[in-house]
Amino acid sequence: MACRVEAEVKGSVLLLRMSGELDHHEVGPIRKELADLMESDSIRHIILNLAKLEFMDSSGLGLILGRYKYLQKIGGNMVLCAATPTVKRLFEMSGMYKILMVEISEERALSRLEAVQ
Amino acid sequence: MKNKLTCNFSSISENEGLARMIAASFIAQYDPTLGELSDIKTVVSEAVTNAIIHGYNEEGFHEVCMRLSIDNRILTIEIEDQGKGINEVDQAMQPLYTSRPDMERSGMGFTIMEHFMDKVEVHSSQSRGTVVKMVKQLSAVKANCM
């Protein structure tokens, strides 16, 4: 199953709602789209809503880690929200769960970002 | 009860999802838990992706072989490629290690396989290919009758 990404820009925040299956096959085109979007819209933060992401493997982790490193360089933050238990487990195993901000909803994630700015 | 399934498919990334679906369908008939089903899909995805990216450098004209077998609820999965092989298997299996930092890989593939399966063995020789063999005991089926 393909991975769909719905992107919404709110000021300097890029809100990404991912659904479907995020694997190596899907990661390539998404990486390019995100890179274009982030540069053209002067994005500083990302909120990842993974509520509808049914599958992810280490290729997906690589994609997210790559965007996280980019945000770190420009002083931005990444907030993870609503990941399913299976997806959450991968984040925990990789140690990324400890370095990302985690919130239960998009609204909470947005207010968390406003608070740290 | 014993059962097995073997399939060969082209080394193209489209087939990562197909391999996951085949493996999930194969074990679905043995009433796995949802967690087991998701573990199996993940490890198949990791091993097939490794074969395509690392074994074959993303050249799509090769073949990946997947062998699934089950005996007494012990599931064995073998993913084989005839690609370039792994130089240092121990190093490749370290968490966060990747031979392709240029590709933004997380380096978590083998760590995930070891975490989700009871046993992972890697047999590799240079220029001849790699076989990843993974074993997992599925939990007993709970009796569901009144």
From TrEMBL, chain A:
CDD domains in the cross-refs: STAS_anti-anti-sigma_factors
Family: Belongs to the anti-sigma-factor antagonist family.
Species in which this protein is naturally found: Jeotgalibacillus salarius
Gene: spoIIAA
Highest rank taxon of the organism: Bacteria
GO molecular function terms attached to this record: anti-sigma factor antagonist activity; antisigma factor binding
NCBIfam families associated with the record: ant_ant_sig, spore_II_AA
PANTHER family named among the record's database cross-references: ANTI-SIGMA FACTOR ANTAGONIST TM_1081-RELATED, ANTI-SIGMA FACTOR ANTAGONIST TM_1081-RELATED-RELATED
One record GO biological process: sporulation resulting in formation of a cellular spore
Segments forming domain STAS: 3-113
Name of the protein: Anti-sigma F factor antagonist
InterPro entries attached to this UniProt entry: Anti-sigma_ant (IPR003658), Anti-sigma_F_ant (IPR014237), STAS_dom (IPR002645), STAS_dom_sf (IPR036513)
Pfam families: STAS
Keyword vocabulary terms for this entry: Phosphoprotein, Sporulation
Function: In the phosphorylated form it could act as an anti-anti-sigma factor that counteracts SpoIIAB and thus releases sigma f from inhibition.
Keyword Lipid metabolism: no
From TrEMBL, chain B:
Secretion signal span: none
Residue span(s) of domain Histidine kinase/HSP90-like ATPase: 35-140
An example Gene Ontology molecular-function term: ATP binding
Enzyme Commission (EC) number: 2.7.11.1
GO terms, biological process: asexual sporulation; negative regulation of sporulation resulting in formation of a cellular spore; sporulation resulting in formation of a cellular spore
Class of this enzyme: transferase
Keywords for the protein's UniProt record, in alphabetical order: ATP-binding, Kinase, Nucleotide-binding, Serine/threonine-protein kinase, Sporulation, Transferase
Any Pfam family: HATPase_c_2
Function: Binds to sigma F and blocks its ability to form an RNA polymerase holoenzyme (E-sigma F). Phosphorylates SpoIIAA on a serine residue. This phosphorylation may enable SpoIIAA to act as an anti-anti-sigma factor that counteracts SpoIIAB and thus releases sigma F from inhibition.
Similarity remark: Belongs to the anti-sigma-factor family.
HAMAP family assigned: Anti_sigma_F (MF_00637)
The protein, known as: Anti-sigma F factor
Organism: Jeotgalibacillus salarius
